[in-house]
Write a structure and sequence with these properties.
Length: 203
């Protein structure tokens, strides 16, 4: 091939390649059709929110196995879920005892409790229903709104444990009625559940 012709062809080829790869120097905005955008690029961004459950700090004993449990305490007339590690194996009785004992530093979460430190009860679970047989009446000295929160503390805590879906209450073996979260009363012997008090839970 004649060298001058080959040189001319090479020049044309390079010119074409440069123009094919060049960026439009015009400042005009060219909108791209949505159908031509890959799905991953055109999809709207999504965000997820997570709720952090407070965990109470405690001194652990080396060599001891602990389990994480959910306890409910009062904050601004609502219930706050707090996680606490207690010695394993846990059971409804030890969980109830941990709730009564409360937190070593309740001011850390700005929480209180309406359950007196000397409150005792026998927790008996049958068929997923926990009966809380109180040794004294905790409702007698409380206002109606306080009664609701106190029962909610116990009910939410126990129904957060595996194998417990409902709770009934009794005093010295005699069934009693208790207030639900919305203010109505569950008659004596009628079980209450987590959903009966979930509207009282604060984030």
């Amino acid at each position: 091939m004649n060298r001058s012709i080959a040189a001319a062809m090479l020049t044309m080829t390079m010119g074409f390649g440069a123009s094919a790869c060049s960026v439009n120097s015009s400042s005009e905005f060219i909108e791209i059709d949505q159908s031509e955008i890959p799905f991953d690029l055109s999809a709207p961004e999504t965000t997820t929110t997570t709720t952090t459950v407070p965990m109470a700090t405690q001194t652990t004993v080396p060599g001891t196995i602990y389990e994480l449990i959910d306890l409910y305490f009062i904050k601004n007339n609502q219930l706050l879920q707090v996680q606490l590690e207690i010695g394993a194996p846990t059971n409804p009785q030890t969980v109830f005892a941990a709730l009564i004992a409360g937190l070593s530093d309740p001011a850390q979460f700005k929480v209180t409790t309406l359950l007196p430190a000397n409150l005792t009860a026998i927790i008996d679970v049958q068929g997923g229903v926990a009966n809380v047989n109180l040794q004294s009446g905790i409702l007698d000295s409380l206002s109606p709104s306080q009664q609701r929160l106190a029962i909610a503390q116990i009910s939410l805590t126990l129904t957060s444990q595996p194998g417990i879906g409902q709770v009934t209450f009794s005093v010295n073996g005699k069934s009693i009625g208790v207030p639900r979260g919305k203010g109505d009363i569950a008659a004596a012997g009628i079980p209450v559940a987590f959903d009966d008090y979930k509207m009282l839970i604060t984030k």
